[in-house]
Hints:
The chain is mostly helical. Helices cover 77% and strands 0% of the residues. It is built from 18 helices and no strands. Helix 4 packs antiparallel against helix 10 (223-245). It starts with a helix and ends with a helix.
Amino acid sequence: MGVDGEKVRTSGEISRSEPSPVLPTVNPTLEKAEPPKSGLHPSLYVITWITLSSSVILFNKWILDTANFHFPIVLTTWHLAFATLMTQILARTTTLLDGRKTVKMTGRVFLRAIVPIGLFFSLSLIFGNLTYLYLSVAFIQMLKATTPVAVLLATWSLGVSPPNLRTLFNVSFIVIGVVIASFGEIKFVLTGFLFQAGGIMFEAIRLVMIQRLLSSAEFKMDPLVSLYYFAPVCAVMNACASLVFEVPHLHMQDIYNVGIWTLVANAMVAFLLNVSLVFLIGKTSSLVLTLCGVLKDILLVCASVMIWGTKISPLQMFGYSIALGGLVYYKLGADKLKEYFSQGGRAWADYGARHPAARKVIIFSAILLFIFLLFGGLAPTYAPAYDPKAYLTNSRYVSSLMGDKAT
């Protein structure tokens, strides 16, 4: 027994000395140093994405409306053909599209997932561009705020997730805000409204189909890889539609009026938007992405006012503010908002303790800006036209003088 016990103790000692990696003496996080990160600040990616995203929308509106190139399907086809060419070049010359190597794409998956999703993608692009012929950029952005609502309804309709009354209540503020903004729209065109509603509906179905058909890990794609697969399919579909509806009425003079290099620049900006989105997603959080989208929409509304002189009523701005607030609440949730507000309050208090004078200036400036926007919104949007000739003609005194002269 003593010998056996000694053997047990000896084997126990040996077993305790073997697994040395279980208790490492060096912190593995310090052993594996991370590679040096890019020196570019995340704000640069945010600014780039907002600039390119806004530029694409304003550029499309200018070409289709201001430049009188009334061929939205042809323009969309050109964008997709250009994106197909560029993704093929990048796949062969850079590492930006190496993510496609992890996607298990087969002929069956291509026909059952890529093609039907590409069909709804094409429809959403066509209807979205048709809207520019009828509505202002400002009103289009207000209507686009309902996209999360459409996605939610499509998710329930296609059985991807069960209906939830609490979620429906959360998104109801977006709907209420957009309805108010629509009533306040000065130049409401039903045709454009229906086109935009159709584009939102098709986009919602596309997103839900991606969630249902390509949700597994082997089909995860970043925006650029997604464009690599979907652009050729959508280009062919849009080309077929354009051959039927627009190409018979298109002349080379229409292209020359816009400018070939203008169209090339337009397609390049649209493609660079997808490239910038890849970097933006990898460098920012969900909060930043949500706020970036809201800021971009506000800037586009302001740009529409400055470039095309779009008139926005106070009722419209009130409704849009409700919709944007509901959008942020729906995407982030109450708990996240409380956390961010708490962090922001502590940071603001700390800033006030370190820079009290600057804090007072900011508060005073914010109050002045609020008063200016309040009274500016309540004021008439334009002064009534003044015609001196009509005034003189309608004046009794002048009429009497003219009558005396006649006699």
